[in-house]
Design a protein that fits this description.
This protein is α+β, with helices and mostly antiparallel strands. The chain is 32% helix and 32% strand. The strands form two sheets. It has an eight-stranded mixed sheet with strand order 2-3-4-7-8-1-9-10, sandwiched between helices. Strands 5-6-11 form a three-stranded antiparallel sheet, with no helix packed on it.
Length: 225
């Protein structure tokens, strides 16, 4: 988060929150410390999802449809490089997208197996969970609540096809805007998890509620249980 965006929290969250966020960022940079809130919500399989919005449509891209997704994601603002798309589909992930005039304007990814986050750190989770990651809405389409409106389609796929009962996602402590969005979508926080990674040193931690759900950060060659 850049300094201008950080300062923008002051009128909304107060000076204390802005100072706490700045201190946390410095700890992360100096110590390699990352702390996240872990959120979950039950998935629902509605027979006839009533998600609809004039001018917009929904499309779920699955394994075997990489070329089509890549062709529709040429806008560099979408940040969907071809190799990332192919690798994600190869491991069984799916991408749900909202389209306007046949162009992708919003998307998110769902994973059902351990997934890479950053810097060689992976996430694992219980077998009944769908892990949501890499979500983006183009700036000009934000404020329309597109992910929330169309989420019943994704939920139905995750329940009926993949046998998942809950969604799980994490957000950095101090990221108030993302936290507010998650809560508005029906998520509740079950605890905290994170890790310290500096050079060859890696130490993961999680609170009891997170442990019960099977959520964990790990490095494959040094897996921490």
């Amino acid at each position: 988060m850049d300094e201008q965006k950080e300062l923008s929290y002051r009128p909304r969250w107060g000076l204390l929150a802005a100072v706490q966020l700045a201190l946390l960022r410095r700890l992360q940079m100096s110590l390699g410390l990352r702390v996240y809130g872990i959120y979950t919500r039950p998935l629902e399989s509605t027979k006839h999802p009533d998600a609809a919005m004039p001018g917009f449509s929904y499309r779920l891209f699955v394994h075997g449809e990489a070329d089509e997704l890549i062709a529709r994601a040429r806008n560099p603002e979408l940040d969907l490089p071809p190799q990332f798309v192919r690798d994600a589909f190869e491991k069984g992930d799916v991408c749900d997208a909202v389209l306007h005039d046949n162009e992708i304007v919003s998307y998110s990814w769902s994973a059902f197996t351990p997934t890479h986050d950053v810097d060689g750190v992976y996430i694992e989770f219980g077998e009944k969970y769908r892990y949501g990651y890499k979500l983006l809405t183009l700036p000009e389409y934000r404020g329309h609540h597109l992910p929330r409106i169309f989420k019943p389609f994704r939920d139905r796929y995750c329940v009926d096809i993949r046998g998942r009962t809950h969604s799980i996602v994490f957000v950095a402590v101090g990221n108030h805007s993302s936290t507010t969005t998650l809560i508005a979508q029906g998520n509740c926080r079950i605890g905290f998890a994170g890790y310290l990674k500096r050079g060859s040193v890696f130490r993961a931690f999680r609170t009891p509620g997170v442990r019960r759900l099977g959520f964990n950060f790990f490095v494959p060659e040094n897996k921490v249980r």
